Amino acid sequence: MSKTVSIETSAGLVEGVCDPKFKGLQDAFVENFEKRDEVGANVCVTLEGKTLVDLWGGRKAPDGEAWEQDTVSIVFSCTKGATALCAHILADRGALDLDAPVSKYWPEYARNGKEATTVSMMLDHSAGVPHVRTKLKDGGYNDYDYMVKLLEEEKPFWQPGIRNGYHGVTFAWTVGEIVHRASGKRTGKFFADEVAGPLGLDFWIGTPEAVEPRIAPMIFAIPDEATLQSKFTQAVMTDPDSPAHLFLMNGGNANFNTRETHAAEIGSANGITNGRGLAGMYAPLANGGGKLVSPDTIARMGRISMGTHEDATLLIPSRFALGYMKSMDNRSFPNSAGMSCIMSESAFGHVGMGGSIGFADPQAGMSFGYNMNQMGNGILLNARGQSLVDAAYRSIGCTSNASGAWR
């Protein structure tokens, strides 16, 4: 039975509930505030559909007001998990064929070398449009129709389907427009109607103004030496034609701490929720699909669709299911800090820039969610998020991740 928690740390109060079984996770969460520069955060774990951990603490800003139970933040690419879920719901209902050519739903896209692209290629980052080459107008990400039009005209960086490269922002409009065409609703509306609303989640893709006072602004990380020397950062700084450079540098001066961007619909990057919302979204997916999707769809969602020794965008080894990250162990990779996301082999989910994460583990019946406002370095999880994931797995009896996945 979960116990009430109230612990004072040097960064502020940690509150919530935690089942004694997850005491190690509670300790890791507190340690993040004491030793790893956490500012404000929420971690939540469900097991067999029951919430056993829901801890929050710290502050919305350094020396600012307390992080409350209902505080939320942008979770960046964790949003991709929500957008992918919309596509899988439609596929489960027979309204979307993941093996069909994109032209079946979005004929305007099938041009300039993209004619053979399938829906599944959109989901597993092999569609060949990891970004656009056109210099974006200011605020371009916030203009949904503008981004859709650019992608219709874009030539692929590689023949669709032959390799994968992380579609860090364009996933919002590749997968998002497929959801729109197949359902008649844009992703934010579909997600609200079919997922967040029925599950009672504080989770939005296009956030109402009334939520704004609850949003903790993101605090951006200062790159450390390992980050600056990584192959990804070097490409960003030296190769202006690379997907890595375009992904980080051709963003139309996007500012994710503004009301305009919070209100926009960027189904790859601007979802606003907390650890509770992430764990709540994945809880049905960890337990057979609930009312969202069938067990067969769950099996498909968690199966690796694309993997590579060098992701064309991130320039690290990567493994993707249809819309989700799988366990990625890059601890032996040069300048490897923040380049791994180690879960179990059955787990699927998504990290967000700076270190947030949500995932489902169907074998364990566990879902996990973590968000924060102090971003960390690296492409995937930093030490704060990974320490929480590790503690959660140890709490359910897992003994080792030496294989590259918790077992």
* Full CATH superfamily name: DD-peptidase/beta-lactamase superfamily
Strand count, sense and barrel status of the largest sheet are: 7 strands, antiparallel
> What's the helical proportion of residues?
25-40%
- Please indicate the percent range of residues in DSSP E strands (runs of 2 or more): 5-15%
Low-confidence stretches: none
**How does the overall form come out from the CA principal axes?**
globular
Q: What is the level-2 CATH architecture name? A: 3-Layer(aba) Sandwich
Q: Helix and strand string, N-terminal first?
A: EEHEEEHHHHHHHHHEHHEEEEEH
Condensed summary:
The chain is an alpha+beta fold and 407 residues long. It is built from 13 helices and 11 strands.
Question: Can you walk me through this structure?
Answer:
The protein contains 13 helices and eleven strands. By secondary structure, the chain is α+β, with helices and mostly antiparallel strands. It has a single domain, classed as 3-Layer(aba) Sandwich (Beta-lactamase), CATH 3.40.710.10. It has a seven-stranded antiparallel beta sheet, sandwiched between helices. A hairpin with a 2-residue loop joins strand 1 (3-9) and strand 2 (12-18). The chain is globular. The model has no long low-confidence stretch (mean pLDDT 97).
